[in-house]
Amino acid sequence: MPSWVEEFFINKGELFLLVMNRAWEKGPERAETIKKILEKHGVAKGRILEICCGNGRISINLAKIGYEVYGVDISERYIRDAKERAKQSGVEEKTSFIVGDVRELSKFFSENYFDAVLNIWTSIGYYDADTDQKIFREVYKVTKNNGIFIIANCASRDGILKSFCKNLFEDFKDLVILHYNDYDIMESRLKARWVYYRRQDNKDLKYLGETTLNLRLYSIHEVVKMLENAGWKVIEVLDNLREQREAKYDSPINIIAKKVL
What we know:
Rossmann fold; 2 domains; 261 residues; N-terminal domain of TfIIb; eight-stranded mixed sheet; alpha/beta; four-stranded antiparallel sheet
């Protein structure tokens, strides 16, 4: 495991948890959008796997609308929080959250086990192209014939570089994150330092900590090729899952692939 992944999601995982918690507000809407995509491609019910599931924002909301959902993440902290949230939401029996490495999915699940697999919110590119293609093969193994693999809301190289900014910030009212960005043109990697601050009642900022990110950025065609090399048939490439518009050159990566034997 690269050191930055261990730092970002495990050793200092409480920092990114602050960001994930703020995404929960749109969780139900995101789940409904994914449900429509699944139904469109023949998965109106069944067993779903979300890889890199974080603290369950998507998985738990899918369980609320009828799916049996499994979530896998390398962070014990996130999985512990997901289990607690599932219990609070009344879907403890419809969900199963596992601490695990997505590079080794077939160690945790039988072949042909899931009707669909989800990879949401820039959850590829942590390693390198060979490793990501291996992950796609692992997903292929555990998916049923005619099952669906959705990669959604993933940053694309073309989209990031179109509006690339060396220094920027995110303001969540009580949480402020400064981003110091660099782009390695030889390796197509976004290298960034995230510095977290809590905004206090007197409007002062309290330093919480910082993490580094070293993310492999892909163009859409690269992910399409890796999926095809892993056995998948790509059936849709979209700009936006909710509106289901066709992708443009600078769109985020939203790909629906199918396992066809």
